[in-house]
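Lecture notes, unit on protein representations.

Consider one protein chain, 343 amino acids long.
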Amino acid sequence: MESHGGGFRLAVLNPGGRDAEQDFAAAPRGDGAAHAPVNFHAYAACTGGCFYRDTARATEAKRPVLLLLRGDFRDSERALGLLKKAGQKVAVSLKETGLHQIANQLGDRTRLSRFLRIVTEADGCLAPTPEAADVYRSVLSAHNAVAFIPTPYPLHDSRWDVSRPPEERRGIFIGTREWDVPSRNHLAALLAARRISEATGEPITVFNCDGRRGEGLLAQLGLGGDRLRVLDGALPYEEYMAIVAQHKIVFQLDTSFVPGQVAGDALLCRLPCVGGNGAIERAAFRELCGAEKSIGELIEIGIEVLRDAAFYERAIGASQERAGSDLSFPVGALQLEDFFSAL
């Protein structure tokens, strides 16, 4: 992946994590086993940097580090001490940054104590959402040590343009799949999509990762025949994206204030994303996102974007233009370099 940050290359460290280590300067797209350059991997990828899970290798690299906080934060705290001893600049970020995820992680006394200690000992905090940045600012007195930088997307790279011709697109893709997370509003999204489907004739596609329980819940919606396509289980990212790209729109009602991969995936597929209040949704899909809109308004937007070809094209064009200005790899690389240089 080409570096866009000059001599600046960022190391992202997820100590003890499951993702394999990856040098994005040497892997332009990956071989199927490599992680796609999205989410926290994108911070490394846009600078031609590396993603590590081994702290020793991150210290050997002698680069600025974004340290991810996961699990009970014990491995992260140990890694912070080693990185600081090696003289490296270290910014930290919770790995899970939806508001419900932050609440779950910091609801434990020991974990909260460790989090507060890590944040105050690090050089700064990097947040993929404005809300997570506000959490860090509530802990740190030096607010210039906190930055909100949305996760960038490789929109500049034709190898990550997975779009399909408009005449090959059909249907509504549901961007959420978690029944048990209230702020995902998965059931409400399915019910709203049913309304959109009834008005436009477009079928609905949803992933079921809950086995028989999920099958039973979906069966209650009364979407039989060719109106509902259910795909079971998880898929590798590129296979998943190929399915998303077959649709006309992505629809969701997530109110978790997440970084916004649902919308980011829609950007790579060159699709409109209706609903959701993630950081990418608010940045790229302002007129379509769920911020300050009712479910009824989002249903009407979904119907209009599917019925009105001109509105559809304008929505795609506007989102791509905004993403190119605010969310591209070159922009992300410059923001990261400026942030770490100022620490």
